[in-house]
Amino acid sequence: MTTDLFAVDPIALAAILGMAVATYLTRAGGFWLMGHVAISPRLERFLRHMAGGVLIAIVTAAVFNGDGPLWIGLGIVVLVMLTMRKPILALAAGVAGTILLRLLGF
């Protein structure tokens, strides 16, 4: 392995470029495909709520593998969401609560 700061391994570069092309094609292909699909009210509702479902899946996986402060942070998220109905505020409060609990040594 070389110590040159700007040396690039050709295999790593090919992998990075390959992943970039794959990412671009899936995104561009999705936009192209949706340009040819009639969006019904049902599909529109699905697409509108899909991002929240993906976020919930990621958070749930993290919480089940997490510790006490993470569970309490999830409780904060649920409480704020139920009372204020603002997802970004709920997530920010949950993250802040988790960080605060960890800083306090819980």
Q: Any overview of this molecule?
A:
The protein folds into 2 domains: about 1-35; about 40-105, no CATH class. Helix 3 packs antiparallel against helix 4. Helix content is about 80%, strand content about 0%. It has helices at about 10-35, 40-65, 70-85, 85-105. The mean pLDDT is about 90. The longest helix has 25 residues, at about 10-35. By secondary structure, the chain is an all-alpha fold.
What does the main sheet amount to? none
- Average pLDDT rating: 89
CA distance, first residue to last residue: 43 Å
Radius of gyration equals: 21 Å
Structural class designation = mainly alpha
Number of strands: 0
The percent of residues in helical segments reads over 70%
Tell the overall outline: flat
Poorly predicted segments: none
Outline of the structure:
The chain has 106 residues and is mostly helical. It has helices at 10-34, 41-64, 68-84, 87-103. The protein is flat and about 45 Å long.
Features of the shown structure:
single chain, 2 domains, mainly alpha, 0% strand, 4 helices
List the helices and strands and how they pair.
Elements: H1 10-34, H2 41-64, H3 68-84, H4 87-103
Helix pairs in contact: 3-4
